[in-house]
Amino acid sequence: MHTASDLASPDGWLNLGAGWLFTSIRDAVIVADAASGRIELWNPAATRLLGFEANEVVGLPLAELIQDVQATEDWATARTGDPPRGTLELFARGKSGPEVWVELTLSPLTSPVDGHTYVLAVVRDISERRVADEEHLDRVRRLILHEESAADHRRLEVLAETSRLLDASLDYAATLQKVADVAVRTMADWCIVHLLEDDGSIRWLALAHGDPAKEAVARELQERYPTTDAVARVLRTGASELYGDEAGGDANDPGEGASELRESARVARARDAKHLRMLREMDSRAVMIVPLVARGRMLGAISLISTLPGRTYDAYDLATAEELARRCGQAIDNARLHQEAQAAVKARDRFVSIASHELRTPIARVKGYAEMVLAAHTDGDLTDEMLERSLRRIDHASDRLATLVRDLLDVSRISSGNVPNLRLRTVDLTELVREVVGRYQEQLSGTGHLLLDIVGAPRTVSADPDRIEQVFTNLLDNAVKYSPDAAELKVRIQAKARGILVEVQDHGIGLPPGTVERIFEPFSRATNAEQLQISGMGLGLFICRNIVEQHHGRIWARSAGEGTGTVISVWLPERSVAQTKVIAAAA
Question: Which positions ≥6 away from 459 have C-beta within 8 Å?
């Protein structure tokens, strides 16, 4: 093995010229035995760096001066003769005491004489650089904290003003417009709020833009070219979507295209020249779309759009937008609940008024005819004909009163979930309908016509005959009540889709648009029936629907409009199908 003096001698194999190792190199250079890690050479720059003379450290393990160096992967790599992995940052022990933060490069060194392996360490003092780096990082941290503090302040301002606006009114349409205005002042260049309607359609409710001229363009864009693919996707998935300037998105269809292809994407998306001009004028860049949700129900979405080139929304912005949407969703839900409560109160008051009138009429008839009979009896003028006629009318009024009370009790049970059990049995539906129609044919004799059309052979259902009779009695009552005198009514019964379809058709007042579903709601009637002051509490069809659905059937209405008549259809499953459904429900 070579000694340190051999290695440094003029004839030593490390000697590449006079003073090359100890004088010419400004960095500290240390050569250590690869196997033992002991220091073999120590140049003057190493003395200046750490304070030790060569004779003080030669023979010592390098790890005593540079902590953990022999435990690094770089040391293992240098020992095997592989090229350097890079640089290391470690602490070195100085003679005067303080540790020095150094950067090392470890390289393999092999003796050409006997092939012995050494590790050459080039050591640099990076203490000042590290201090400068730490100072820079500290400045960056302070800047970030300042920006975050300012952002937090802005976020709190946005949310606080939003909450104030939302708490101030239950008119959510006007309030959301004010929220859009706040968003434009603080978070976006323009904002649009879409709502999801009960029928699944999407409509925009509020829109604001920082530039009044462009706001007019944005409104026209929504009216003329409604494209809500991205909004529909958010409403479908319930997940927010965020697009940066590189996405080339625009408010009508954010997320389409890319920055370098923005113009070609607009051209492809535009429906005509005016549409293209409007898309160019809006020039939307960064976009956030967040859902409006309350109590697990999807209500709509808010889109926040920036037109600043290079601007991107980050996760912090998205969190603010989502909190904004959450508060708006709660406000919409609260407003709708308030409206529903008001509607319920109005419906209750209306029901009390109608019920009082409907109940008073048969009671007045009973009392009137009873008083008339008593007066005639007292005066000795009571004849058998008068007595029979009066008793029949009292009986009819009593039946009407009993029907009203039964309907009220049915609605009470349905509302409380205490629906009476069906007494199911095999029923010849054709014969049941025939019997009900027969009663009304006698009633209408001379004033109208009621036709019964039976298509195909009689069929049976598994049903509660009293309840099903109640359904068809109610439907024929309505058909007679809402039809002019001498009108023709028709009942048709036929097999349909593994069941039996019964249709009750009249040529009466018909249904206005938008009421074919509403007439099956409790206390709800068509507007033209109310305008014509036709008596009724709006309970019959609601009860019919519940009875039919209990039998696993369907009931629906159709009408071409006012004055065109109405068809009410009832479908009940055949006996075998109904039994299967009842068994499955019981299981």
Answer: 428, 429, 430, 495, 500, 574
Structural domain harbouring 581? 425-586
| Structure-block tokens of residue 551 | 């039998």
> What is the spatial distance between Cα 207 and Cα 580, in angstroms, rounded to a whole number?
53
pLDDT of residue 329: 80
Q: State the pLDDT at residue 169.
A: 67
Dump the DSSP string for 250-307: -TTSTT-S-GGGHHHHHHHH-SSHHHHHHHHHH---EEEEEEEEETTEEEEEEEEEE-
The residues facing 524 across adjacent strands are none
CATH number at residue 213: 3.30.450.40
**DSSP class of 66:** B
Instruction: Report how far residue 59's alpha carbon sits from residue 541's, in angstroms, rounded to the nearest whole number.
Output: 105
Q: Find out whether 493 and 472 touch, Cβ atoms under 8 Å.
A: no
Cβ neighbours of 13 (radius 10 Å) = 16
- Of 307, 329, 351, the residue that ends a domain is 329
Helix (H) or strand (E) holding 461: strand 460-463
pLDDT for 434: 92
Q: What is the CATH number of the domain that holds 102?
A: 3.30.450.20
Is 77 found in the same domain as 46?
yes
**pLDDT < 50: residue spans in the chain:** 1-13, 15-22, 246-258, 578, 580, 582-587
pLDDT at 558: 94
Does 481 lie in the same domain as 568?
Answer: yes
Domain total in the chain: 4
Q: For residue 306, what are the β-bridge partners?
A: 286
CB of 101 within 8 A of CB of 49? no
Output the six-digit token pair for 422. Answer: 């069906």
Q: Which amino acid is at 407?
A: D
Cβ neighbours for 382, distance < 8 A, ≥ 6 positions apart: 373, 376
The count of other CB atoms within 10 Å of the CB of residue 421 is 7
3-state secondary structure of 420: coil
Quick check: is 335 in a domain?
Answer: no
Same domain, 178 and 228: yes
Give the Cβ contact number of residue 254 at 10 Å.
25
Boundary (domain end) residue, out of 416, 438, 468? 416
Same domain, 453 and 481: yes
Could you tell me which of 179, 164, 174 has the C-alpha nearest to residue 335? Answer: 174
92 with 65, same domain: the answer is yes
